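[audit] Reproducing an earlier prediction to check determinism. Same input, same settings, fresh worker. If the tokens differ from the archived copy the diff job will pick it up downstream; this log only records the rerun itself.
[audit] input (350 residues):
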Amino acid sequence: MNRVRLFAQCPPGCLLACLLALGGCHRKIWISQHPRFYTPELKTIVVAPFRNATGRPAAGRVISGKVAAALAANATYEVLTPSDLGMPTDAAGPPAAADTGALAELLRKRRRAQAILTGTVTQYASAQKSDWRQRPVYRYDRKGRRRLSHYVGYTHVRNEATVDATARLIRVSDGTAIHATAPHAARATVASQARGDEGLPPELDLDECLASAADKCVAKLLEAFAVVRKQISVPRDALRAAAELRDGKWRGGKKFHLTDEKMIVVVNFPAECDRNRFRIVIARRDTGQEAASRNFTWLRHWTSRTGKGFVFSPRGVAEGGGGPGRYVARLYSGREAVLKAEFEVEAHKR
């Protein structure tokens, strides 16, 4: 509590500096997030009609249609349509979500799709709330003093919509579940309310709120089943130099000597970086001459409190960079250097 009070009592300039410092502790990077179950061998899927467990008749059709379109645009898989599989496209077409066994049997005969994505829309609702409010109107008297004149009433409107769905990916060959989302993991709510205090209508009407919530729900489902590009935040100390790991902590890392057996560049990324490729480049600080490098693909099990260490030779770095001096290790994601760690290689111990 005391810390909160002290923070709140900071002058505005000091508070801004603190916020900037906190923001500077992290770096945003782009990655391709892979679902844990995903393998390149899984190539073709069919999106079955979602079961509708809501009071809105079109909910299942709308969400399954949006999911199919999102997956097709994403291109992690080839998304097959009923016509692709020689299946009827009228109302008596593909079996619904509740009958995935029959659909799997049908798909096995055609030998094209490897998995079925099916699901249930559990919430698809919108509501409008209106309440009467008053805003004060002021006037100035002869002495220029601001005085309350009267109140003006207006109707404040708030539109809100919530969409929720669960989904399962089922293997066609044996009918087993490959992956399923947890309840409410894809839930999305969008709200829009009156602007200002003059009774202006919300920017989004009820239908627009519902459509936006549906899109957000589908985006969450897409992230659960497909490889997606996303931006994540990592600490700036997710890359550092170290001399050794002792008592569960990385030690040293500011200075190395030609006689040292090794130096370690430590990377500590979240599991979301699984299967993403990165490159460590060590270069002389003043000239930028590359002294050493290492390509690697981040693996989920490397994510831990200590991260993963990559070993380099201080002598090898010095030989590649033109001798002892100051060096910088940079971590590249694609062509962009996203993190760096500086250190020094000395000829002799002082």
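[audit] rerun output stored. Observation attached for the diff report: The two ends are 47 Å apart (CA to CA).
[audit] end
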